[in-house]
Amino acid sequence: MSDTLGNIQTRVRWEARDGEFNLTNTSGLEIANNTYRRLAAIIPWPELNREDTSASTTAGQESVTWPSVKYIDVTQIELQDPDNNNQYATVVPARSELEWAQYRRMESDFPVVYKRTHDGTQNVVKLAPTPLIGSLTLRITGQIEPTEFSDSASTTIFISELPDDILALMISSQIMDKRNQPARAKELLGRAAELLSAIAGREITPSELRVEPNG
């Protein structure tokens, strides 16, 4: 089950052989959060899969404001289809600028492709052809960034403790690397990679887990 940053700090102190290292001060939180995000981005954790339905279309307008959800990776965008009882239909990413331009020149209809971009003010998703009907809900599915740790009581999102052990090993490796103990750092990262490989069902190399030390 999810564990607190305070308990992860206990693991880190043991593995790093340092009874005083603080994960909850400014620099410690930065290390913890950087490493947490790195671990989250390695494999598609079920705990970090999210659907967002806060965005909707405006008739005749190609741009829809991107939701505030911090996605690491978007795996699918769907749109309610009014011709199919508002069931969701997949809108695919444009494969090229040429394809995007071709659909963009079409008359307003049900969108076929999308393009993520920034309009100079905010992140948006553009739809082509331009939506003919407004108030159709977009359903965006993907992997999100985990919520940052803010204090010792902050918890990870994982449903088992093994990922918390991996996180502690990754943080401990950074500490050892920073203190010019590369052999110990390599050992810790190797153990983390071995454990994550068991979860992922594929080989994870230590280099995939490496986070450059701060400072």
Topology (SSEs and partners):
Blueprint: H1 5-15, H2 26-42, E1 49-52, E2 63-65, E3 71-81, E4 87-93, H3 97-104, E5 113-118, E6 123-128, E7 138-144, H4 162-178, H5 182-200, H6 206-209
Structure characterization notes:
The protein has 215 residues and is an alpha+beta fold. It has two domains: 5-47 and 146-209, no CATH class; 54-136, no CATH class. 35% of the residues lie in helices and 20% in strands. It is built from six helices and seven strands, in the order ααββββαβββααα. It has helices at 5-15, 26-42, 97-104, 162-178, 182-200, 206-209, and strands at 49-52, 63-65, 71-81, 87-93, 113-118, 123-128, 138-144. The protein has a seven-stranded mixed sheet. Helix 1 (5-15) packs across helix 4 and helix 4 (162-178) packs antiparallel against helix 5 (182-200). It is elongated. The mean pLDDT is 94.
Brief description of this entry?
The chain is of the alpha+beta class. 35% of the residues lie in helices and 20% in strands. Strand 3 (71-81) and strand 4 form a beta hairpin.
Descriptive labels:
2 domains, single chain, seven-stranded mixed beta sheet, elongated, alpha+beta
What letter string, H or E per element, gives the SSE order? Answer: HHEEEEHEEEHHH
Number of strands: 7
Oligomer state of the chains in this structure: single chain
Total helical segments: 6
Shape: elongated
Strand content: 15-25%
Helicity level: 25-40%
Radius of gyration: 22 Å
Largest sheet, if any? Answer: 7 strands, mixed
Q: Provide mean pLDDT, rounded.
A: 94
Structural class: alpha+beta
Q: Give start-end ranges of low-pLDDT stretches.
A: none
The strands making up the biggest β-sheet line up spatially as 1-7-3-4-5-6-2
Q: What is the count of distinct domains? A: 2
